[in-house]
Amino acid sequence: MKVRVGVNGYGTIGKRVAWAVSQQPDMELVGVVKTKPNWETLSAVKRGLRIYTLRENMREFHARGIEVHGTLEDLLNSVDVVVDATPGDVGATYRKVYENFARKAIFQGGEEPNVAEVSFNALVNYDEALGKNYVRVVSCNTTGLLRVIYAISKLGKIKSVRGFIVRRAADLKEVKKGPVEGIVLDPPKPPSHHALDVNTVIKDLNIVTYAVVVPTTLAHIHTLQFMLERPVTSDEVLDALSNTPRILLVNGSLLKSTAELRELARDLGRPQGDIFENIVWSDSVLVRGSEVMLTYAVHQEAIVVPENIDAIRAMTRLKEKAEESIKITDESLGIKRWL
Ligand code: NAD
Fold it and tell me: Fewest C-beta in 10 Å: which of 48, 74, 198, 273?
């Protein structure tokens, strides 16, 4: 029996998670909830998805000639798990609704950690999400941080992590967001919330992050410094990174910008040009004794998608082990197979 999944909120994350669910051998996408009959609804219709909406919005959809399959409540009656991909802080307002229908729910990183029983990253704490009813998949930046921290932790105990995060200002479609000029300290006084969010998953890690926002829509870039308990070599670090799922190495002589990276993903036919992996520049890896530094890119629109799929498997106990779920997810989405 396949796990039946619904997606509430068909925006940047919701549409990608809906597509990814439809690629899984053990899941069925029942439908998606749209609140407005806008261009993203048109994309859902053209993709042949079942559209649901809020009861009070039904008439607006009918007036536009868009067939609606039912209400959010109808969708909840037909699924085992709902992936909430509504805007930040809106998801929390739905928690009671999901509870009333006794449905398992996944929330996204824009929600406060207390929206769920556990904040989740597939590599780091899959086990903690086993059988849970409410799980929060951490944000794009936090997901990127956790994957690399996981990889480096394979080399030995991490004494500290210091990070500098260059954040994209907005996603491509977000025409009202900025900045369109200038670089904004986010926030001026460290730590940025990313370090705190990492600590919701790895409680005892000594981590501080600084962040700035720059006028781009393509991707984030992180530069991290690790202090380890033992000296390591560059080869050990590169092996640890390349042997970790969802981390891809590129060479700076091949490409050295997020623009070239995103274009390459489009050239190679990635769905919507999406990059689900952390892209680590191998030449950025600098090792001096027990100090390791490196730089990588995070495609903000895509990186959390495989984590949502693994969260579904953990909560429904489709797979008891992280590596089993990650393998199915990664094969189905072509992860680490395109570059
Ligand atoms: P989005 O604005 O692109 O999509 C949200 C969707 O929810 C839209 O389709 C919107 O119409 C719909 N919506 C709004 N109010 C609703 C309501 N009351 N009920 C149902 N649907 C409603 O947002 P997004 O970027 O996809 O972000 C969703 C979540 O994912 C947020 O928590 C965000 O922080 C997180 N996230 C976003 C990114 C990113 O880069 N965009 C990356 C990682 C995590």
Answer: 48
What is the Cα Rg of the chain in Å?
20
Mean pLDDT of the chain: 98
Question: 44, 115, 140, 261: which one is catalytic?
Answer: 140
Chain centroid, CA 136 distance in Å: 10
Decide whether any atom of ligand 1 lies within 6 Å of the 94 Cβ: no
Q: Are 244 and 150 in contact (CB under 8 A)?
A: yes
**Which residue has a Cα nearest atom 23 of ligand 1?**
87
pLDDT tens per residue across span 192-248: 999 999 999 999 999 999 999 999 999 999 999 999 999 999 999 999 999 999 999
Domains in the chain, CATH or no CATH each: 3-138+304-333 (3.40.50.720), 141-298 (3.30.360.10)
Index of the ligand 1 atom closest to the CA of residue 140: 43
39 CB burial (10 A radius; 0-12, 13-18, 19+): exposed
With the CA atoms of 18, 215, 200 and 27 taken in that order, what torsion angle do they form, in degrees rounded to the nearest 10?
A: 10
Please answer whether residues 245 and 335 qualify as being in contact, where contact means their C-beta atoms are separated by less than 8 angstroms. Answer: yes
Which among 99, 93, 103 has a CA at the least distance from the CA of 7?
A: 103
* Residue to substitute in 8, 10, 12 for testing ligand 1 pocket (most ligand atoms within 8 angstroms of CB): 12
Q: How far apart are CA 278 and CA 297, in angstroms?
A: 6
How far is it, in rounded angstroms, from Cα 194 to Cα 200? 10
Cα-based distances in Å from 49 to 42, 105, 144, 225, 246: 10, 20, 30, 44, 28
pLDDT at res. 257: 98
d(CA 147, CA 207): 14
Residue 165 among the catalytic residues: no
With a 6 Å cutoff on the Cβ, whether 109 touches ligand 1 is: yes
Verify whether ligand 1 is closer than 6 Å to residue 174 (CB atom).
Answer: no
Q: Give the helix ranges, DSSP H, for 106-192.
A: 122-125, 140-153
